Amino acid sequence: MEKGKIIGIVAILAIIIIVGAVVGVVLLVDPCANEEAVLKISGDGVKEETDLSLCNLQQNKYDHVENKEFDWRNNANFTGADQFTGVVIWDLLKGLVNDDAENLEAEVIASDGYSRSLDLSLFESGAEDVILAYGGEDFDSEEDGNLRLVIDLSLYDEGEANTKYWVSNIVEINISVK
């Protein structure tokens, strides 16, 4: 075999190996690595503090609902239904908490410091009726920020208002032992 052909074959093989390595590295890189964190999961009830971007929350590794209708009642006793898309909050938290849900409390904190505390077992038992909304027909990013906690009315006692727990502009969920 001619020396020129051998060099040509080696060059082609080198190019194939380099292209394969580049493709492999691209596939291994976290697609959300450069995204800004929008949510912190913290507290003595989690295994480790975790920061998540909107990209992380939208990944298929968590259960999601799309344009699901959530019934609501406000403090003035008006009722209605709104549609939201988001991640099922219990699916997000279950791998992060270090105790049973009934022993834990979640404080949902907004960017302005407003917060609401809820028994974490509500998140577990409600499953798809408790989400961190990031979109949907009735999601308003101007009003809701990146994330809004949405809890369906069906999880509350008759006549109880649930919109007081629909915290918008969420930046942190602090999980603590009761």
Q: How would you portray this structure in words?
A:
This protein has 178 residues and is α+β, with helices and mostly antiparallel strands. The chain is 26% helix and 34% strand. The chain has five helices and nine strands. A hairpin with a 7-residue loop joins strand 1 and strand 2. The longest helix has 26 residues. The radius of gyration is 23 Å and the shape is elongated.
Descriptive terms for the model:
single chain; 178 residues; alpha+beta; Sulfite Oxidase, Chain A, domain 2; 2 domains; 5-stranded mixed beta sheet; 4-stranded antiparallel beta sheet; 5 helices; 9 strands; elongated
Provide a brief overview of the structure.
This protein has 178 residues and is α+β, with helices and mostly antiparallel strands.
CATH class of the largest domain: Alpha Beta
Low-pLDDT stretches are none
Number of domains: 2
Radius of gyration: 23 Å
Work out the helix count. Answer: 5
CATH third-tier fold name of the largest domain? Sulfite Oxidase, Chain A, domain 2
Classify the secondary structure makeup into a structural class.
alpha+beta
**Largest sheet: number of strands, sense, barrel closure:** 5 strands, mixed
CATH superfamily descriptor of the largest domain: Oxidoreductase, molybdopterin-binding domain
Strand content: 25-35%
Helix content: 25-40%
What is the annotated CATH architecture of the largest domain? Alpha-Beta Complex
Distance between the termini: 78 Å
Instruction: Report strand order across the widest sheet.
Output: 2-1-9-5-6
Shape: elongated
Mean pLDDT: 88
Count of DSSP E strands?
9
Order of helices and strands: HEEHEEHEEHEHEE
